[in-house]
Amino acid sequence: MTGGVNGDGRPIGVALLGAGVVGSQVVRLLTEQADELAHRVGAPLHLVGVAVRRPQRHPDVPAELLTTDAAGLVTREDVDVVVEVIGGIDPVRGLLLTALKNGKSVVSANKALLAEDGAALAAAADESGADLYYEASVAGAIPLLRPIQQSLAGDRIVRIAGIVNGTTNFILSAMASSGANYTEALEEAGRLGYAEADPTADVDGYDAASKAAILASLAFHTRVTADDVHREGIRDVTAADIAAARALGCTIKLLAICEQVDDSVSARVHPAMIPRSHPLASVSDAYNAVFIEAAAAGQLMFYGQGAGGPQTASAVLGDLVAAARNRVIGGRGPRDSAYADLPVLAMGDTRTRYHVALDVTDRAGVLAQVAGVFAEHGVSIATVRQEGRGGSSGEGDADDGAPGPKDATLVIVTHSAPDAALAATVEALTGLDSVRGVAGVLRVEGLGRPVTELGGGS
Amino acid sequence: MTGGVNGDGRPIGVALLGAGVVGSQVVRLLTEQADELAHRVGAPLHLVGVAVRRPQRHPDVPAELLTTDAAGLVTREDVDVVVEVIGGIDPVRGLLLTALKNGKSVVSANKALLAEDGAALAAAADESGADLYYEASVAGAIPLLRPIQQSLAGDRIVRIAGIVNGTTNFILSAMASSGANYTEALEEAGRLGYAEADPTADVDGYDAASKAAILASLAFHTRVTADDVHREGIRDVTAADIAAARALGCTIKLLAICEQVDDSVSARVHPAMIPRSHPLASVSDAYNAVFIEAAAAGQLMFYGQGAGGPQTASAVLGDLVAAARNRVIGGRGPRDSAYADLPVLAMGDTRTRYHVALDVTDRAGVLAQVAGVFAEHGVSIATVRQEGRGGSSGEGDADDGAPGPKDATLVIVTHSAPDAALAATVEALTGLDSVRGVAGVLRVEGLGRPVTELGGGS
């Protein structure tokens, strides 16, 4: 039988769904490392079938393994573990639910599905006693979910902040190093294979939001879906923003941030300025890095390659060994637990800090007027710097053409305040007659560093 | 019964051996997080006893739990898991073997014991089907053993290189930042609580060697003991060495390095120059960081606090939750596997690179003579720089008093060669009449970076 414990030394049957960039590497590693994997599992791993849409496109997979009948494959008697590297919500959801209901363990790299409907998958796994592993869904090769679920199981995680999307990190790194604008950097990313033809999932933050939902769910024992995650992408980050960050001793990164605040959970994805002295600031190109802060363990950082065929396959195979080993010796991997069931904090109620650059008329009383608007909204200012107007105003600035000789730029960094108060402040500032335009607004993450590190010029 | 699976919802009995810096934090976290831990385990954790030598010294532990009879505690019927945070080889070895033979699972933070006699503990665990976890034995709070054993179970680890001892890292950081010599920096470490009254285990590399043995054993599926690890400490690192490293764009760190070289394992602990651009170079004070390179996953880095009561207790509790959960639902954690059983390479056969600073007589032909000695030993030179004699010769240099006006320093960095050939080269150089003394010898680790990063001045 397929759903029970394999105690008789027979091979563990593996079904693979998908044979693309990751799947072909899974096949390669299963073949090349067959002996070692058998030692680690306690029984040989036997690849019984590979479901693909167009068999003729996969000459590297033995022809007799290829099938277009994924639904038939996941219920085969000789399948113990289903490995899914197709991606997307449907038809994968139905296939994996069927597999779990039939007692097959599932290993998935599918962040979108896990972030949208992880609860249904977890429930199906619990019902049949099968395993559900998905280490590869977040940060590729970097061991992250297992440390959160298991290594830190005796601790209290308070915050996760990280760079979990390689495409946007490549684009922001390119903008910072070359001065390129967003469109130029995106084109370069596409040329080098770091961005897909349709980059929406990456640049608009959907990919990072799915990962944030998965991380927050595991860290805070609360079901958080991608829809619960506040999401802003990097399309609006300008070369002027990058320059403004540099002037503050900062760099801009797209961050996924998950926090427990009192008895609520906050999960968000947005670009933010971080101090250049912070370890995340030096994570460049397509690398990923994630900070985890726990009450007893303190700050931990995990760093590595967040994407790529072999890298993602490494994480998939680690899960496959665990699931297969549980078939051999009994027991189950960690269950998704949602016992804490905390409410998700709205973005407006989440405390953040803003960097605001204002193009203002350079006359007496302007700063007092601007500061008054901040005060009215209960927002405390950390630093203000006044600059003569250079050429650094935002691309969308209507005044770009002919700034008067009496213009100046005010660069303001706030202390932390509810995000809604900060947004309302910026909105109110645009109504002042002395404010000619908002040249840039970005959140600032000190990431635990003292505020003083954010002051001063470059 | 204590050795079997607890399927009836009764509490999991925990015995704690030791209530010092780590043990007292284990008691605190078990108490404060009781509800959350019960959710994660599936049953309450019940602390049934705490074995200490002098009960009156532990007013923070409930008096009725304290006992001096550790041997009696580890065999009690109501104990499922024994948590050991005493440290040292004996009498702990006997206590843990007894516990395992009686079917109790063991969680230990004891690097010395695991590195010396892990095989006996693993065998005892296998025999009774109990668990043996020891995440806290290496790098404190940083999840490291679980990623190596489980997350990377489907990959092939080729190299581990890291900073795994906080005391020596603090001392070397202090020397680099203040120019202090070794003795001054050690005293400062002692004053601030980073070094023990007898710092031998740290500064002579015993602690790091134990950790290297544990890491190499798990990574390469081969039993490696502390005695197999080549070990050099930091007592001989001079302020001149630090300055020489800086001139090469490097910094000096005590590294633990474990490699698979062809069909052998190499494990070593020694100070080494590493490029200042490498992420390990910026790991300062008492922090730990470990790089793992795997065939498919590529380079991964793990960073965090390697010591401290709460930090180490976090790792201990993660293991305790895993062991307790296995009691509740059945199954076992990963076994230590030594199926590969690779031979350990002698240090002399391990390929390394040297930095050699020679005080030489400044006359024609000296460089040719020196280069000839390298060539005779089959050692290829990467860079040579000749410097006028400053005040930077080694502390032990007999010529220190009155250098002649015609002296110079040759700074040589080699390409990689067998360590024995490099050592023999240095020995032969001291026999040249033009060489007045060896001002410094240190290994250089490029850590995968191109050689060019090591060339040039500061």
Automatic annotation (TrEMBL), chains A, B:
Pathway: Amino-acid biosynthesis; L-methionine biosynthesis via de novo pathway; L-homoserine from L-aspartate: step 3/3; Amino-acid biosynthesis; L-threonine biosynthesis; L-threonine from L-aspartate: step 3/5. Keywords: Amino-acid biosynthesis, Methionine biosynthesis, NADP, Oxidoreductase, Sodium, Threonine biosynthesis. PROSITE patterns: ACT (PS51671), HOMOSER_DHGENASE (PS01042). It comes from the Bacteria. Pfam families: ACT, Homoserine_dh, NAD_binding_3. It catalyses: L-homoserine + NADP(+) = L-aspartate 4-semialdehyde + NADPH + H(+); L-homoserine + NAD(+) = L-aspartate 4-semialdehyde + NADH + H(+). Residues 385-407 are annotated as: Disordered. Its EC number is 1.1.1.3. Signal peptide: none annotated. InterPro entries: ACT-like_dom_sf, ACT_dom, Asp/hSer_DH_NAD-bd, HDH, HDH_cat, HDH_CS, NAD(P)-bd_dom_sf. Its cofactor is a metal cation. Residues 355-443 form the ACT domain. Catalyzes the conversion of L-aspartate-beta-semialdehyde (L-Asa) to L-homoserine (L-Hse), the third step in the biosynthesis of threonine and methionine from aspartate. Belongs to the homoserine dehydrogenase family. PANTHER family: HOMOSERINE DEHYDROGENASE. This is Homoserine dehydrogenase. It comes from Actinomycetospora chlora.
